[in-house]
Amino acid sequence: MAPGRGPRGAEAAAVEIKDGRENQIWYLKISKLALAFAIIHSKPPGKSSKEYTEHLAKTISEQDFGWKRKVEVLEAEVLRLRQELLLNRICPRFCLENRKPGTSAETLLNRESINPTNYSSQLEDSGCDVSNDSAFDSLGIASDFHQSEHNVEVPPLNLCHSSKEQSLTAPVQFLQHLLEIRKLSEGGILQADFSELENDSFTICNSVSQLLDGLTVFYNSPKFPVSNFLTEAVCVLVSLITDTKLSNHVLKKCFKKLEEFKKNLIQIILRNSSVNRFQALHSVSQTLILLGRNNILRNSLISLLLSEVRQFAEQLLQTHQVQSVYDITQYENIFPLCMILEQLLQNKTEESNVSSSDYEGEEKIKFLKNLDQIILHLSDEFPLFSLYLWRVSVLLNSAQMQID
Fold it and tell me: How many alpha carbons lie under 13 Å from residue 56 in its C-beta half-sphere?
């Protein structure tokens, strides 16, 4: 038998490993003891060992925070450079032109149709031609978003924003540039290769993730009046997911993040207990409705809403049957979800391209199961909520009849 291969060799190896671990533990204890003695001997007069230790720990922590901040700055710069590189790959001409501020993409399209040779001096800043005049209410959310999916526009980037919004600058500007290139290429002014988005999933995913995270932070603790920059951020998001050429790339790379964003917004509505919460809830509700303009996101959003409304109805029924006290705040917060659900279903049933697969889901079956009994038991005590349940069930059934 080869040396070290038998039982004795295995035992010797185990003993060696054990001794090594014991040595490591011993050295660690000695190091801690030596550090303690060093702190005691080096502490300045007038300070106890505990106070001096806390001072050293705080100093080291601040140094670590400084390094973390430097890393964050470098990571942001790397992302910005990757964004520029990706834009250059998609459309080199867009990045190389001498672009003048104050000229909109729509103006470029009009001027190009009159004098195509002057285009090189007329490419402009980051914004896509959009006006906020009537598209947004005081919350900065679209109150009546009737443009077609091809004509959803983006306002120009406003760089005057608070430090809280600073992290949104790079992703919003990058995505605005994508939308601008898309619009100019559609008008025949630029040649763009959007297949490059497939080759750099990190940049597009990171940019969309930062945008969604920033909006989530705002909706968790909104401040009014809403800044124009946050209005623009919502506009960019809606334009991105409704653009026929860009939305497929975004959904393919960022679907999970968008799903997480929708779930977060729903929970923000349900959990909000502030006295003056209704303005904020309306803001979140309008954003969810705008996300529902994308068919894929709308289907999953309807399923999420059906699940939340069904669970609340079942809990309310149980509370009512045992004559227990129900949470009035939670009851009030369920109505925005009901209104969102009703509007999404209404929009869906009005479309001519409703497919059977859209409505064949587990959540629909669960929602309609025993719904008549729930409405019957709740209608006297909770007539408004029961009415919403009935209206949602009518929309679900009417969609099914259209399919049949």
Answer: 15
Has this prediction a pTM greater than 0.90? no
pLDDT by residue (tens digit) across 32-74?
777 776 777 677 877 777 777 777 777 777 666 667 777 878 8
Alpha-helical runs (H) found in 98-226: 105-114, 169-186, 201-220
Q: Cα separations (Å) of 388 from 86, 298, 319, 322, 393?
A: 47, 19, 19, 23, 9
Four-residue CA torsion sign, 247, 248, 251, 253? negative
Confidence of residue 97 (pLDDT cuts 50, 70, 90): low
Q: What local confidence, expressed as pLDDT, does residue 9 receive?
A: 63
SS3 234: helix
Q: Give the integer Cα–Cα distance in Å for 179 and 187.
A: 12
Give the count of beta carbons closer than 10 Å to the beta carbon of residue 353.
Answer: 7
Closest residue by Cα to residue 288 from 327, 257, 311, 262? 262
What one-character DSSP code corresponds to residue 324? P
280-314 burial code (b ≥16 CB/10 A, e <16): bbbbbbbbbbbbbbbeebbbbbbebbbebbbebbe
Structure-token pair, residue 96: 């190389």
- Angle among Cα 154, 174, 257 to the nearest 5 degrees reads 90
What does the alpha-carbon distance between residue 372 and residue 397 come to, in Å, rounded to a whole number?
Answer: 13
The answer to whether 187 touches 179, Cβ cutoff 8 Å, is: no
Asked if residues 171 and 210 have their Cβ atoms less than 8 Å apart, the reply is: yes
Please say whether the dihedral angle defined by the alpha carbons of residues 351, 356, 357 and 358, taken in this order, is positive or negative. positive
Residue count (the chain): 404
Structure tokens at 129: 């031609």
Residue that the structure tokens 């623009």 belong to = 232
Task: Report how far residue 25's alpha carbon sits from residue 158's, in angstroms, rounded to the nearest whole number.
Answer: 57
User: Which two structure tokens, joined as six digits, stand for 148?
Assistant: 């077609």
Mean pLDDT computed over 68-91: 87
Give the Cα separation of 342 and 219 in Å (integer): 22
Task: Please list, in sequence order, all residues whose beta carbon lies within 8 angstroms of the beta carbon of residue 284, skipping any fewer than 6 positions away.
Answer: 219, 265, 268, 269, 336
- Closest to 241 measured CA to CA, from 305, 184, 308, 288: 288
Backbone φ, ψ for residue 142 (5° rounding): -60, 125
